[in-house]
Specification:
By secondary structure, this protein is α+β, with helices and mostly antiparallel strands. It contains three helices and nine strands. A five-stranded antiparallel beta sheet has the order 2-5-6-1-7. A two-stranded antiparallel sheet has the order 3-4. Strands 8-9 form a two-stranded antiparallel ribbon. A hairpin with a 7-residue loop joins β3 and β4. α2 runs antiparallel to α3. 27% of the residues are buried.
Length: 171
């Protein structure tokens, strides 16, 4: 089970069952590829959503903000989470290879751009965390699971976003 901070408001829950293959002959990048991709399945559950409230109330911008998403894999393809989330329009925050560093698009407000740059500094990597990993012990046959809390940089990013949007709501 993974936790990720993604751009935009995701559906409350869903399954992405789309094959993944190499992107444009790249050795690194992957993309949904129905013709040459290998089967890949990702289940997701939105844990929370922090809206962006930097526009006048008359504008409807439903996809803005950040979501904390729980992801569970049925398959283990290279970059599966990153490729699947990009495919549904919700790249991981600050994932430069899959478009998550383009969160500046959609606004020309310099205060917001500075806020986003500060967020990139707080979490200077793709916002993806392996929450629970498990395997079957080779000798005992026992199922073993290991869980870790959300890292400090991702927690700080969510707190910074929550604080900024709450402050903006009060203006």
């Amino acid at each position: 089970i993974y936790l990720a901070i993604t751009e935009g408001k995701t559906d409350p829950a869903g399954t992405i069952n789309r094959p993944i293959g190499r992107a444009d002959q790249s050795l690194i990048l992957r993309q949904v590829d129905p013709d040459k991709g290998d089967p890949a399945c990702t289940h997701y559950l939105q844990k929370c959503w922090h809206p962006k409230t930097f526009y006048p109330a008359t504008l409807s911008v439903p996809q803005d903000g950040l979501s904390l998403v729980q992801l569970q894999l049925e398959t283990g393809r290279t970059h599966q989470i990153r490729a699947h989330m990009k495919h549904i329009g919700h790249p991981l925050f600050n994932d430069e290879r899959y478009g998550g560093n383009e969160i500046l698009r959609g606004t020309q407000f310099s205060k917001y751009k500075q806020f986003i740059q500060n967020c990139f500094a707080v979490c200077p990597r793709q916002a993806l965390h392996a929450r629970t990993l498990g395997f079957i012990h080779p000798r005992s046959g026992q199922e073993m699971y290991f869980t870790s809390e959300l890292p400090a940089d991702m927690t700080a990013l969510l707190e910074r976003w929550r604080s900024y949007t709450a402050h903006r709501d009060m203006e």
